[in-house]
Amino acid sequence: MGEGETDSPPAAKKGAEDDEEDDFGYRLFPDRNKKPQSFLFRSLFTFHNKCQLMLRMTLEMNPYARLLLEALKQSGCTVFNDRHFSCENCDGCVSGGFDAATSQIVLCQNNIRQQSHMNRVVTHELIHAFDHCRAHVDWFKNVKHLACSEIRAANLSGDCTLMNEIARFKFGLKRHHQTCVRDRAIRSILAVRKISKETAEKAVDEVFDACFNDLEPFGRIPHCRADAKRAYRDFQNRDRYTANL
């Protein structure tokens, strides 16, 4: 994604005090607290229609997303399009978020305009959903837990591929991927937590090595679509090898 945009980590439960909601990022997702709109209204709303079409394309065709959907299903957390995804209007600085209170991925229909962008946002948020499914993540009180999932999402979603970094006019050779992952994890935390930059940096640095090297469910860092396809094939073959033993 371009500068000024970020994928948001989980938002807080509804019904919290206003200042608490602000701490956990609900201010970035104003439609979370509104009444659901009628199907007719949403169908006629161009952004919503386009968002739904791009989402379907991602879930059916993108190897990153398909691998994560299968991994979630195998972990006992089957994802359903209508239940677990919601296209909504968001604050101008975010592209998506994972709402741990409802286990729902929010896609910012007013900020996602291209299929490649949708692919990255869905993948990023599905990684949060996978972490939520497989581990007891304390999204709201333990910033290290949040930092770990943000590191994994930046590392494995394609956020930091060479082409994306060039598009952001960021260049570098030595450990550039690690630097990108660290920077984007810090930015995502700061987008929805009222903490200092120093606190966010400390949390990221303390868990960086362990979380950067946690490559589940991909088994590798997918630096491009071809890598993701290979990872998806390997993931599908895991159970076949075990069954033959």
From TrEMBL:
<dbReference type="GO" id="GO:0005739">
    <property type="term" value="C:mitochondrion"/>
</dbReference>
<dbReference type="GO" id="GO:0033615">
    <property type="term" value="P:mitochondrial proton-transporting ATP synthase complex assembly"/>
</dbReference>
<keyword id="KW-0378">Hydrolase</keyword>
<feature type="region of interest" description="Disordered">
    <location>
        <begin position="1"/>
        <end position="25"/>
    </location>
</feature>
<dbReference type="Pfam" id="PF09768">
    <property type="entry name" value="Peptidase_M76"/>
</dbReference>
<comment type="similarity">
    <text>Belongs to the peptidase M76 family.</text>
</comment>
<keyword id="KW-0482">Metalloprotease</keyword>
<protein>
    <recommendedName>
        <fullName>Mitochondrial inner membrane protease ATP23</fullName>
        <ecNumber>3.4.24.-</ecNumber>
    </recommendedName>
</protein>
<dbReference type="GO" id="GO:0046872">
    <property type="term" value="F:metal ion binding"/>
</dbReference>
<keyword id="KW-0479">Metal-binding</keyword>
<dbReference type="GO" id="GO:0004222">
    <property type="term" value="F:metalloendopeptidase activity"/>
</dbReference>
<keyword id="KW-0645">Protease</keyword>
<dbReference type="InterPro" id="IPR019165">
    <property type="entry name" value="Peptidase_M76_ATP23"/>
</dbReference>
<dbReference type="GO" id="GO:0034982">
    <property type="term" value="P:mitochondrial protein processing"/>
</dbReference>
